[in-house]
Amino acid sequence: MPASNSDIVPDSEHRGLVARLPQNLRDLAMLARFDRPIGWWLLFWPCVWGVWLAGAGWQVALLGWLLLGAIAMRGAGCVYNDIVDADLDRKVARTASRPVASGRVSKKRAWAWLLALCLVGLAVLLQLRALAQIVALASLALVAAYPFMKRITWWPQAWLGLVFTWGLLVGWTQLRADNWDALAAMYIGAALWVIGYDTIYALQDREDDALVGIRSSALRMGGFVKGGVALCYGGAVALWALAFWLYRADWIALLALIPAAGHLAWQIATLDESDPDNPLARFRSNRWAGALVAAACFVVGNA
Questions:
Q1: How far is CA 196 from CA 82, 229, 247, in A?
Q2: Which of 3, 241, 249, 272 is most solvent-facing, going by the fewest CB within 10 Å?
Q3: Contact assessment for residue 76 and residue 114, using Cβ atoms and an 8 Å cutoff
Q4: What sign has the CA pseudo-torsion 272, 283, 51, 158?
C-alpha cells in the first residue's frame, strides 16, 4: 500500500525510506520515530559526554551499546508518549496523523511494540556494570511521568531535560564513581541545553497547543523566546565550563567549549519564529552541538 500524505508527518527526515516499508511496518517505524533520527542523536550524545569525559579513551564497544540503547529507548518513549497522548494528538495538526492518534495502530498493538523495544533496552542494560544499571533504571520514573507534565506545568521541557540527558550519568558511572561535583554541573548544564532546544521545537505548535490546553515553555516565554533560549544556552555553556574546571582546573581546557558555544550562539542569532521551517532546522542542528560538546569532553577527559 503506498504511503499517503497523511501517513508521513511533516517533520519526517526519511520520507522515502519509510514510504518503502509495508503499511504495518511503516506505522510501527513512525510510532517509534525511526523516521526522525534527531531524537536518538539527542539522547545519545549525553551518553558520549559521560563516557569521554570519564577519561577512559574511545570506548567504542560501550558507545555502540549505548547507541543501540538510545535508539530503542527513545523509540519506546515515543510509543509510550503516543499511547498516553492519543486524545491530545488528535487535536493538533502536526500530530493528528500519528499512528495511534489516527487509529492506524491500536493501543494493544502499541503496547506490544513498546515491550519489544524495552527488551532491546534490557539487552543493553545487561552489558553494564551494577552501578550503571541502577542509575539507568532510576530514570524510569522520570520517563513514565513525562507525558503528563504538559498537562500540569508550563515547563515540560525542564522535565524532558532531566530525562533526555540521563545517559550522561549512565556513561559516567559505567566507568567511574567519583568527581560527582563535575558530573552534577555537566548534567544540569545538559538539562538547560534541552530546555533551550525543545523550546525552539515547541515553537511549531504554539497556536495548536494554546487552543487545546497543552502547556510549553514556548507559550510561557511568549515574546521572550529568543532571550529565554539564550539564557538556557548561556547557562548550559557556563555550567559545562564549571564542570570542566572542577574536573581539571586548567584554563586551556575551557577553550574546548568554544566551537559548541559558537554553534549555540548561531542558533540564537538566526532563529526566526515567523518562518515555519526555521525553528525545526535550528532544533535539528543540535545533533552537531552535541557532537561538538562530545569532542570537548574527549579533549578534556583524555588529552
A1: 23, 5, 25
A2: 249
A3: yes
A4: positive
